[in-house]
Amino acid sequence: MKKTLLAIALVFSATTLFAQQTTYPVNGSFDTRPGMFAFTNATIVVNSSQTLPNATLLVKGQFIQAVGSGLSVPKGYVIIDLKGKFIYPSLIDAFSSYGLPETTVQPRGSRQSVFISTKKGAYGWNEAIRPETYVKNIFSADSKKADELRKAGFGSVNVISRDGIARGISAAVTLNESTDNNLFLKDQTAANYSFNKGTSANDYPTSLMGSIALLRQTYYDSQWYGRQKDEYNISLEEFAKQQTIPQFFEADGWANILRADKIGKEFGKQYIIKSNGEEYQRINEVKATGASLIIPLTFPKAYDVEDPAEARNITLAQMKAWEMAPANAAALEKAGIRFALTAFGLEHSRDFWTNIRLAIENGLTEKQALQSVTEIPAAILGISDKVGSLEKGKIANFLISSDNLFKNGNIIFENWVQGKRFIVNKIDVADLRGIYNLNIDGINPLTLKITGASGGSVAAIERTGIDSVKTTAAFTRNGDWVSISFNLKKSPEGNIRLSGYLTTSSPLLIKGEAAMPDGLSGKFSATYKEAAKETPKKEEPKTSLAMGPLIYPFGAFGNAAIPKQENVLIKNATVWTNEKEGILENADVWLENGKIKAVGKNLAAGNARIIDATGKHVTAGIIDEHSHIAGSGGINEGAQSVSAEVRIADIINSEDVNIYRQLAGGVTTSHILHGSANPIGGQSQLIKLRWGKAPEELKFAGADGFIKFALGENVKQSNFGSGARFPVTRMGVEQTFADEFTRAKEYEKTTAVKGNNVRRDLELDAIVEILKNKRFITCHSYVQSEINMLIHVADSLGFKINTFTHILEGYKVADKMKAHGIAGSTFSDWWAYKNEVAEAIPYNGKIMHNVGITTAFNSDDAEMARHLNQEAGKAVLYGNVPEEDAWKFVTLNPAKMLHIADKVGSLKAGKDADVVIWSADPLSIYAKAEKTFVDGVPYWDIDKDAQLIKSQQTEKARLIQKMLDSKTSGSSTQRPLGNAPRLYNCETLEDYSAELNESEHVH
Name one GO molecular function term (predicted). Predict the structure, then answer.
């Protein structure tokens, strides 16, 4: 009877889905009768908070008519008895590219530059801004992909076009098989954004900071557009319309979550953010955004570390991410962060259940897991009135399963979508559990024991006698088909693999093919002998899987606890004050509450920690005026001749190991500059090297704003071909400056007039700040003629140059620099590495210093910054600069250039406690920084570093063993490939979006 009812149900659900009115003609007779079904005696999970035992679900057409215990079944309903079975709401994926054509980014190669959109029509200037894209206009159901998703339990998905920075409007659809018109749950779920320009042919943006600037500018353009009537722009029109609906942002990595949220806060938006599952690394910062998240279940595979040489390629961060990523969802739940789960990014949809169960093993509760695949995605998509739970009036999207949905061994039998039945696994499969006589060609008789849930899900092989064997077997079944794989251990090396099917049910008989380890094949049969006696498992308290500590930053030299500020009294040192007191012998330095409390002899400091620095030297921390560490997604935005709108502040990378390495060289403050790809580059950011802190916490509070200008070969790009970006000559470089400042002056005048509807221009805002002495220029420079040119342009247009950096021909123009109050930050002895530095001399710093210019040595190089103390020593070698003055080249003088000498650069009461203890004279090549304090926090300690290295070696050894165990247990692995961070310098060029797209297709 049960089979008959199921067959009737299949006929009705397949032929009479639901009654509807339609404009589509029918070639034949109309049949608009709704399917009416009563699913009885099931455990019905209405939602994550309500489960009904022995309940009934009534479905008519595509809607739920009723759900509850003790319901009477109305006349005309087909009754389906689901005793012992479970009913759950079908899953919802809030982030999918289902039903959209796949588009690939064309390799850029050598071609002419593209400055404005090539898209025909009244659209915006940049193709990466495409809010006019509506998924509803390009969606088409994909039966194959829909089938894969339904088998994983999904009944509906939110479809997103993943092409561009402003991506347009997504839509929620069901995974039913019907005309596209009948699949839409909501045609406009959210406006979508990212930092990836996708398939845009425009050169701009090439960097992460450029993507951020373009999106910010688009928000401002949209506001201006709504106030004007002179121009029609489809892109801005659509962008403005979309601001009242939910806002989704795809932001891979926790740092990009923070960047996206910062944009959202600027424009009054609370994004719902699709992440990549790394939030556990900075859970507090992520929580502070207040954002709801959509997180993937794409956990890294274990690395194959059997070859020790290859294993050395893996970083500690990669190893720890493998171990800790499965606990991400649990960390979010514990922190109270609202999140949905997505199958997006999985190699196979079937991996969804494996990974969600792994997340549960690592602390995610089943209640939260169910919410995150039903109620939460429904809520954030605005479709809770239709799907996400099993209630009267909602669409009949539900699953029939053998057991608790999250239990290992559970089988999803059916997935009903809009009242239509889709079979995932046969519901009436035979119960195979029991003990069998197993006969395999060429093998002595064996015993097969099948146990587990749902009619058999676990198998074991046993043989008694002299050659006794007992082993577990890999066992899978699909209906009446079974696959068994096992190793007898005493057989030739390798597994015996059986593939067969149930041929008779009384007695149970399984027959099929056997594949032997030596490559030969044969037959096998398994005949039912008796019922298996399963030993009841002792319930043990659940504990989360053991794993190593979370460290900050998440990688080499990270600490389980970020170092704390200390009150310290450094005694009996040689103290280089950089003040009028000069160098003090046998003196003390007192650090309290992040400041220098006192400098002198025989100081007493109460309960402060005493450090005996006898025979050692104490100095202010080194300040690097020109650095490119701690940045993400590119250091140059070189697609336009002026990129003053981009900000290094937006891309600070607190995880860069060079922060730690440079602390080990006594550096405490770094000026992070835009590169030198264009005449007017981006806004720079001054940071303190607070190792372990989040990006915003690295920023030097209250510091003046700076901006990077550049001269020379780098900016004119004449070797880029005939289609290169302007300028391509030195005359063009000069004209770029003249044009930009002329435009900025006009812009400033126009915006000052009350009532003018002036489009806010982030690029010109930065230039106006220069004119108002609110932002200051650091200019990359080498050649005398060009330095003279920019001084002349500055004089004629009324702006000032703060610093010429590099300036290896500074000795030729030192008098003019002195007259204009321009500082010089140079290299100690770099020369002959390119044509325009052919006349560099190692006495450059000495000459500028003697003329009275504030002179500094900078690094422009992650490695050189580690030994800027030695670079300062070269000033003594080349020209006999006094040692105290030479030391100021890397401490007080750059502080003066950066307008922070009131806070850092010397040892004086009231200044920041940025202090270094050296083992010897700091100008010596033998000197080591033993301790480096930033704001009184010992971020570098040479003794603790040795302990940290040892403990992290132990941690890596533990993780390697854990990966070896994982491989032995059958888990899939990946080859150990290194993940070396990108090292930037002035000339580094890259395309951020192109690099993102190398590893994935854009949908």
Answer: hydrolase activity, acting on carbon-nitrogen (but not peptide) bonds
Closest by CA to 764, choosing from 781, 751, 780, 782, is: 751
What's 434-530's CATH class?
A: mainly beta
Q: Do domains 434-530 and 622-904 have the same CATH topology?
A: no
Residue environment code for 517-535, b if the CB has 16+ CB neighbours within 10 A, otherwise e? eeeeeeebbbebbeebeee
pLDDT > 80? residue 379: yes
Radius of gyration of the chain (CA): 34
Long-range interactions of 739-748: CB distance < 8 A, separation 24+: 740/642, 740/644, 740/680, 740/767, 741/767, 741/771, 741/793, 741/797, 741/798, 741/799, 742/797, 743/767, 744/768, 744/770, 744/771, 745/771, 745/797
Question: Tokens in use for 817?
Answer: 């620099």
| 45 close to 403: Cβ distance less than 8 angstroms | no
Locus of tokens 């930092």:
195
Q: H-helix or E-strand containing 401?
A: strand 398-401
Question: 507 preceded by cis ω (within 30°)?
Answer: yes
Under 8 Å between Cβ of 364 and 376: no
99-367: CATH class = alpha beta
Single-letter residue type at 518: D
d(CA 925, CA 929): 11
Q: What is the pLDDT of residues 938-967, one digit of tens each?
A: 999 999 999 999 999 999 999 999 999 988
Residue 704: partners with Cβ closer than 8 Å, 6 or more residues away: 774, 775, 776, 898, 899
Torsion of CA 7, 11, 17, 19, to 10 degrees: -120
Residue 15: both structure tokens together: 């032929």
Domain ranges of the chain: 99-367, 434-530, 622-904
Q: Are the C-beta atoms of residues 432 and 482 closer than 8 Å to each other?
A: yes
Surface-to-core class of residue 27, CB atoms within 10 Å of its CB (0-12 exposed, 13-18 middle, 19+ buried): exposed
H runs (alpha helix) in 362-487: 366-373, 375-381
Tokens representing 974? 């990946």
Strands (E), 579-736: 583-592, 595-600, 609-612, 617-620, 622-627, 667-672, 680-683, 685-688, 705-710
Task: Give the Cα separation of 690 and 684 in Å (integer).
Answer: 18
3-state SS, residue 996: helix
DSSP, collapsed to helix, strand or coil, labels residue 777 as: strand
> Strand 166-169 vs strand 191-194: parallel, antiparallel, or unpaired?
antiparallel
* Cα–Cα distance for residue pair 348/148, rounded to 1 Å: 8
pLDDT tens for 918-933 read: 999 999 999 999 999 9
Assess contact for 636 and 207: CB atoms under 8 A.
Answer: yes
pLDDT of the residue at 22: 56
Contact in structure between 370 and 404 (CB atoms under 8 Å)? no
Q: Give the model confidence (pLDDT) of 763-813 as tens digits.
A: 999 999 999 999 999 999 999 999 999 999 999 999 999 999 999 999 999
At residue 380, the 3 state secondary structure works out as helix
Q: Which tens digits make up the pLDDT trace of 15-53?
A: 344 444 556 777 777 666 678 999 999 999 999 999 999
Tokens, residue 419: 């009242």
Output the six-digit token pair for 987.
């000339």
Q: What is the dihedral of CA 327, 333, 337, 343, to 10 degrees?
A: 60
CATH 3.30.70.100 is the classification of domain 622-904: no
Question: Percent of the chain, pLDDT > 70?
Answer: 93
- Cis before 727? omega within 30: yes
Checking if the pLDDT of 979 tops 80, the result is no
How many other CB atoms are there within 10 angstroms of residue 123's CB atom? Answer: 19
What confidence score (pLDDT) does residue 103 get?
A: 76
DSSP code of residue 873 = H
pTM, two decimal places: 0.90
The answer to whether the Cα torsion of 253, 255, 261, 263 is positive or negative is negative
| Helix %, strand %, coil % of the chain (to 5) | 30, 25, 45
Distance, CA of 273 to CA of 95 (rounded, Å): 10
